[in-house]
Every structure is written in structure tokens, then in C-alpha cells.
Amino acid sequence: MSKDMDDRFADPHVIRRLLNESKTWVFVGLGDDPGRTAYQQARLLQNRGKRIIPVHPAAKTVLGEQGYARLTDVPAPVDVVGVYRRAEFAGEFVDEAIAVGAGAVWLPLDVIDEAAAQRALDAGLDVVMDRCPGVEWALRRQA
């Protein structure tokens, strides 16, 4: 990851604001497997007072929240869309986040799509990429 990308997509002020002020996080790729990163991160944020909404083709209820097959099916306003899919699939979900009027997209560790992230920035969304919400939460608590 280049220094420029790091600066654009890992702004500590944006990260802090998203962790502190957001209410609703959609987790694209969230299924009911507690061994998966998406599940662990969704549970962590839910335990810290965030509403989580699973988006997965199976549309299962996860962590007590109704799941939806597509981001465009989510009936509630969305503050942050976490894209827990492989990098080659991230762009389509970033584009859906733009289309539904989400406030931000968060691409976790190793999910890097600079072109999609730039599209989100250009559309006015906040963007965090290649960062873990749990790690950032812990760092914020120590600061």
C-alpha cells in the first residue's frame, strides 16, 4: 500500500468518527459462522452499541439481526458498509454503497481496491481501507 493511499484511506479522524458516531453498520459477507472475521467484527461492534445488518446471499438472521440478500434490500439508512469479501469483489459492493446513500465504506485488512475506494470518495463517502475495526477500536481506546 502506497503512502498516498494510506493517507487517503486511513485518516485517523475519519476512523475515530466512524467508530464513535455511526449507529448502523452493514456487514457484506456476514454469515452465521463465528469463526469468520466478519462475524467476529460484527459481534464486537454490536457489543459496543452498533446496530449490525448482515448482507449475504443466504439472507440469514445473524447475531439476532435480519439478514438481506443484497445491500439494496436493506430498508434502513446505513452509516457504514463493511465489505467482508475478497478484494476482487469489493468494487461492486462499494458501488452499491454509493447507490444506497451510505455514509461510509470500510474495507478490512487485505481488502484493497483503490479504484473503488476513490469512486466512493468522489461520491462523498468516507472511506477506510485495509484497517480492522477491532484493532482501530483498541487503538482509539488507548489514545
Automatic annotation (TrEMBL):
InterPro entries in the cross-refs: CoA-bd, NAD(P)-bd_dom_sf
CoA-binding domain residues: 18-111
Protein name: CoA-binding protein
Organism: Planotetraspora silvatica
Source organism phylogeny: Bacteria, Bacillati, Actinomycetota, Actinomycetes, Streptosporangiales
